[in-house]
Amino acid sequence: MKAGRLYQYNQPLKIEEVADPVITHPNDVIVKIGGAGVCHTDLHLIQGMWHHILGTELPHIIGHENAGWVHQVGSGVTNFKVGDPVIVHPVMSCGYCLSCRRGEDMHCEDLKFPGLSVDGGYAQYLKTSDRALIPLPEGVRPEEVAPYADAGITAYRAVRKAAPLARPGTKALMIGMGGLGHIGIQVMRELGNADIITLDIDKGRLDMSLDLGAAHAVVANDQAISQVKSLTNEKGADIIIDFVGTDRTHADSMQMLRKGGHYFVVGYGGTVNVPSINIINNEFNIIGSLVGNYSDLYELMQLNARGKVKLHTSKYSLDEANDVLRKLEEGKINGRAVLVP
Fold it and tell me: Which EC number(s) does UniProt give (predicted)?
């Protein structure tokens, strides 16, 4: 099969022919990829950021936002058949450890993460497990929904945590209206009751956020903090969801957060640096949020099926993977990019 493999950190992928994945466990499933989302985490993997966490062995096929059709099943798979259209939860979990039994697949003690720790979906075929698959509704094309498998459920999980706090009269600030943010705002519109303020450097993305349900949009510049303060009666936002995660957004968020407020950190790369006296005196709640679990993906797909949450995507061939990754790094992808092998 054709695949995009990383041979060396901070170097382009090689698009080449490799061996097809094979069934080795009764619950294995081979998925024919119909769409593979291109994510900032792919960039971070290429930069070596995940190596010390996952010990990724090179060469490696990246790609963790995948959807397609069941191509082959192991002897123990009874709930899927060849040809079924599916979206793939990003992790392969054991189902037996305490985290799995609590429904938190992404904390599985024997976790395998296609695209990060084992070969992923920048390829024609992907090996995963039957536990990771969710059937697609009739008429839904895999390339239309693949980014929900990570970007979607990452945004969904953070908003689901925040939604009970988003009561009428509260203000929710959402930072970054790119691939995650444009999903997150739609989920907040459906699950929460706060007035939504969006913050981004790009006016086009901000205009889109207004169309998707934001009450106010603020350009990320030197006046942004004062504008957010003005929109929140000088008290600050009750909830901030940061889909960017730089030193700048972390520092600014601490100035835009209301006393007793909740700051959800979703994007990463920076460092949250807050004096403990400030956390205590203001009763700030700083909460990390990882990729969503299987139930989060199921629920998000239900919202998608009802037309409540929609993806803004652009499609490319697998041969264009390096060009797309470069565009993503340069901030030239609006919404989500999807590779179609």
Answer: 1.1.1.1
Residues 6+ apart with CB under 8 A from 201: 219, 220, 221
Q: In terms of Cα–Cα distance, which of 171, 156, 140 is closest to 313?
A: 140
What residue numbers bound the domain in which 240 lies?
A: 153-288
- Same structural domain, 225 and 264: yes
Residue at 306: amino acid letter = R
Mean pLDDT across 67-85: 97
270, 252, 273, 288: which is closest to 44 by C-alpha?
A: 270
Which ranges of 13-58 would DSSP assign to H, the alpha helix?
40-46, 51-54
Segment 131-159, tens digit of pLDDT: 999 999 888 999 999 999 999 999 999 99
pLDDT at site 232: 98
Question: In terms of residues, how long is the chain?
Answer: 341
The answer on 168 and 143 residing in a single domain is: no
Contacts of 309 (CB under 8 A, 6+ apart): 152, 183, 186, 187, 190, 300, 303
Claim to verify: residue 53 and residue 124 sit in the same structural domain: yes
- Which residues, other chains included, contact 233 with Cβ-Cβ below 8 Å and sequence gap of 6+? none
Task: Count how many domains the chain has.
Answer: 2
99 backbone dihedrals φ, ψ, rounded to 5° = -60, -45
Cis ω on the peptide bond leading into residue 59 (within 30° of 0)? yes
Query: How many helices (H) does the chain have, and how many strands (E)?
Result: 12, 16
Q: Of all residues in the chain, what percent carry a pLDDT higher than 70?
A: 99
Residues 6+ apart with CB under 8 A from 326: none
* Distance, first Cα to last Cα, the chain: 10
Dist. CA 252–CA 200, nearest whole Å: 13
Are the beta carbons of 126 and 30 closer than 8 angstroms?
Answer: yes
